[in-house]
UniProtKB/TrEMBL annotation:
Residues annotated as signal peptide: 1-23
Keyword set includes Lipoprotein: yes
UniProt keyword RNA-binding, yes or no: no
InterPro entries according to UniProt: Lipoprotein_NlpA
Topology relative to the membrane: Lipid-anchor
Family of the protein in this entry: Belongs to the nlpA lipoprotein family.
The name this protein goes by in its record: Lipoprotein
Organism (species): Streptomyces thermocarboxydovorans
Length: 280
């Protein structure tokens, strides 16, 4: 039976940021070696596919490996990191390296990827209720984009790769619409929180949606996207992350091994049919 705590995080995220990034009376996850390695390993994750993958590990692989695993689900991209930084959870699994680098820089956090624990890629896709291909977007059409720094740049690069626009030379992982050098169709861009993008489809001509939120909304990146990222050479693989200093916690190493096991790869391939791709 799934033992997962679902948490509505709009208030939690704000509260976590207001409280700051200091530990809340807990030794767990301090990076000082004080974590109780005999306690259950608590991992924060977004529900789909990360929470589902972790639940598969919990239900099918963890006990045999001697690992007691607890999963806490969050629906935003902020709280899983603040929870790790504050020691409220031991690890998280929801993000890629460009996002983590940007988050650490902006928030003064010390969260690191666990070596050898990059698990999967969720191809970013463009979705539309009105057109079947990007070339059919009319002049002045509105495209919704994720408003967090790295995923917005990722969305713009996807549009550029499909000939919709051209970015300025050297535009990197922090590109915004201000970095567009050529926009021949005079497209307009609406920046929204990533989780809101599927709900925006009725209000815009197209939206660039993260794979996990597309899946939660019943959209298939493999079948419904009118354009999608290629997994080849893609830097946006999702991985297990901890507060710096906790990378070698034996529980973390066990989970990293399980998440990159043949069993998990088979689970990803069977359950998501190309909408989520194993990255190991």
């Amino acid at each position: 039976m799934r033992n997962t705590t679902k948490i509505t995080t709009a208030v939690l995220a704000a509260g976590a940021l207001t409280l700051g990034l200091t530990a809340c009376g807990s030794d767990k996850g301090t990076g000082s070696g004080a974590a109780d390695t005999k306690a259950p390993l608590t991992v924060a994750a977004t529900p789909t596919p990360q929470g589902e993958i972790l639940t598969y590990v919990k239900d099918n692989l963890a006990k045999k490996a001697g690992l007691e695993l607890e999963v806490k689900e969050f629906t935003d991209y902020v709280t899983p990191n603040t929870a790790v930084q504050q020691g409220e959870v031991d690890a998280n699994y929801f993000q890629h390296q460009p996002y983590l680098d940007d988050f650490n820089k902006k928030n003064g956090t010390e969260i690191v990827a666990v070596s050898g624990a990059t698990v999967h890629l969720e191809p970013l896709g463009v979705y539309s209720k009105g057109v079947k291909k990007l070339a059919d977007l009319g002049k002045g059409a509105t495209i919704a984009l994720p408003n967090d720094t790295t995923n917005e740049a990722r969305a713009l690069k996807l549009l550029e790769a499909n000939g919709v626009l051209k970015l300025k030379k050297g535009a990197g992982y922090d590109a915004t619409p201000k970095d567009i050098a050529a926009n021949p169709r005079n497209l307009k861009f609406k920046e929204l929180e990533a989780a809101q993008l599927p709900r925006s489809l009725g209000d815009v001509d197209a939206a660039v949606i993260n794979g996990n939120y597309a899946l939660e909304a019943g959209l298939s990146p493999a079948e419904d996207a009118i354009a999608a990222e290629s997994p080849k050479g893609n830097p946006y693989g999702n991985f297990l992350a901890v507060k710096k200093g906790n990378e070698d916690d034996p529980r973390v190493r066990k989970l990293a091994k399980l998440l990159t096991s043949p069993e998990v790869k088979k689970f990803i391939e069977k359950k998501y049919a190309g909408s989520v791709v194993a990255a190991f």
